[in-house]
Amino acid sequence: MTAPLPDPAQPDDDLLPWAADIPAGPAPSAPQAVRTWFDTLTTGDLPKPDGTLATARRTAGALARRGKAANTRRAYRAAVRAWCDWCARHDLPALPAAPADIAAFLAEARHPAPPAAPLGVNTVKLRATAIRYLHVLARLPSPTATAEVGETLAGITRAAGESGQGPRPKLAARVAILREIVAAIGDDLPGLRDRALLLLGFAGAFRRSELAAIAVEHIEATERGLRITLPRSKGDRTATSVAVGIPHGVSELCPVRALTRWRAAAGISQGPVFRRIWATPRPPDATGDWRPIHVVGERGIDPGTVARIVKARGAAAGYDPKTLGGHSLKRGAMNTAKDRRVHPAQLKQLGRHASYATLGAYLEVGDLFEDHALNGVL
Fold first, then answer.
1. Dihedral sign (CA 228, 260, 275, 316)
2. Measuring CA to CA, which residue among 50, 47, 40, 35 is closest to residue 88?
3. Domain 175-360 belongs to what architecture?
4. What are the tens digits of pLDDT across the range 133-167?
5. Rounded to whole angstroms, how far apart are CA atoms 212 and 273?
6. Peptide bond into 96 cis (omega under 30)
7. In which region does residue 341 sit, left (phi positive, over 0), alpha (psi from -120 to 50) or beta (all else)?
8. Are 41 and 8 contacting, i.e. CB atoms less than 8 angstroms apart?
9. Exposed/middle/buried for residue 347 (C-beta within 10 Å: 0-12, 13-18, 19+)
10. What long-range pairs does 262-265 form, CB within 8 A, spacing at least 24?
11. Domain 19-162: which CATH class?
12. Do you find a cis peptide bond into 115, omega within 30 degrees of 0?
């Protein structure tokens, strides 16, 4: 017998979901019901105000869940779905979860039976965090805080590191690397778009999600360059807008000129700046000098496309695409600035990091002697 699941639309159940209905004994909630409930709870709109206490409580619960970014909630939903599907296969309760079951779930994700591919360490850790959040919403004790789950995660991390499979940061595309990548790009529509994307992403130390979301309405031309207003930035926990300055360049790497050329060629005067591009298929009777006709779409690219562009353009310039990703532009900008001995406060501002601890994760160790903190003191 399973415990009854509440209707997420009911006023009293949003913030305190069915915890009182889950007995301490053998009547847990079915995995499929948990999955549906979690999806509904993390995607719902704010209730319509009606002046009642019940609706005010529902609104408070919905706002509390929106304290997490949309991308985070999306990742949590994917992780909870995987957890619920795994529980259904093994006829186990998804909520409340037993620490031993969670440990087994995480271990199998990292070391699955063939032909399944193992998940990365960070993805495994994300799944554990999502299961913890699932229990937080249900107002249940978190089983992931136990030593059993914690030690399993520690073992997964250590084993990955010992085998050389631990998390590795993407290659920092410093300005020298960026110059090589951009030099190999042509002047067709995809080339103009990708060149502008790479140079703007570097100059603004943008994350891939920020790049993909830039619209014409966010850009203001000034005498010294462009002022780009991001409606949201990951480093800003209050989700208020953030202004990013893009100065005029003096070389072929000028992001302002590259963006102007792309927008003029694509005829973009409003809406998303970086858009999908469609190419006509090659006809069967095409000759060797045939070239596709490119059509610029109306929809913007997604963050995944930003990463694919970085990988593809890097590969065309001779770099291993496995080492490149969306973070390569931001890491490249941060480390290029560090190499120029920019003050840490300016680095933090450039990267829009919430703390210096986060900033440190982007910076690479320089020369052991030239960059030694006590160089020239003794």
1. negative
2. 35
3. Orthogonal Bundle (1.10)
4. 999 888 889 999 999 999 999 999 999 888 776 66
5. 8
6. yes
7. left
8. yes
9. buried
10. 262/192, 262/193, 262/195, 262/196, 263/216, 265/189, 265/192
11. mainly alpha
12. yes
Of 77-91, 165-179, 189-203, 263-277, where does mean pLDDT reach its minimum?
Answer: 165-179
Tell me: the pLDDT tens digits for 166-194? 667 788 999 999 999 999 999 999 999 99
Report the alpha-carbon distance of residue 231 to residue 214 in Å, rounded: 9
Q: What's the CA gap between 121 and 77, in Å, rounded?
A: 18
Quote the CA–CA distance of 78 and 35 in Å, as a whole number. Answer: 10
Q: Where are the domains of the chain?
A: 19-162, 175-360
What span, in angstroms and rounded, lies between the C-alpha atoms of 240 and 229?
A: 10
Sequence letter at residue 275: R
Task: Give the separation between CA 16 and CA 353, rounded to whole angstroms.
Answer: 34
